[in-house]
């Protein structure tokens, strides 16, 4: 019973990785649109895109950490 609950909790926690994938896609899609509109700001916009990527990827890593905590600690 407890193992089943752990598996269900871990599966529910992995949904955040799908959200992170969508977020990363949005970040780089916005970068492409912005550079297409104003190519002279490409270097500055790329820095902002990398920051957005890092913050979005951090959410996915926190979700992965929660999955491992659910499966192996509790």
From TrEMBL:
Its domain of life? Answer: Eukaryota
Report the locations given in the UniProt record: Mitochondrion membrane
Question: Membrane spanning segments where?
Answer: 45-73
Kindly indicate whether the keyword Ion transport belongs to this entry: yes
**PANTHER family assigned:** ATP SYNTHASE LIPID-BINDING PROTEIN, MITOCHONDRIAL, ATPASE PROTEIN 9
Q: Which family does it belong to?
A: Belongs to the ATPase C chain family.
UniProt protein name: ATP synthase subunit 9, mitochondrial
Q: Which organism is it from?
A: Arachis hypogaea
């Amino acid at each position: 019973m407890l193992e089943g609950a752990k598996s269900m909790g871990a599966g529910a926690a992995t949904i955040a990785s799908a959200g992170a994938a969508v977020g990363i896609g949005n970040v780089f899609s916005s970068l492409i649109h912005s550079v297409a509109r104003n190519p002279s700001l490409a270097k500055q916009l790329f820095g902002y895109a990398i920051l957005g990527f890092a913050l979005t990827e951090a959410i996915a890593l926190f979700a992965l950490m929660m999955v491992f905590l659910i499966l192996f600690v509790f």
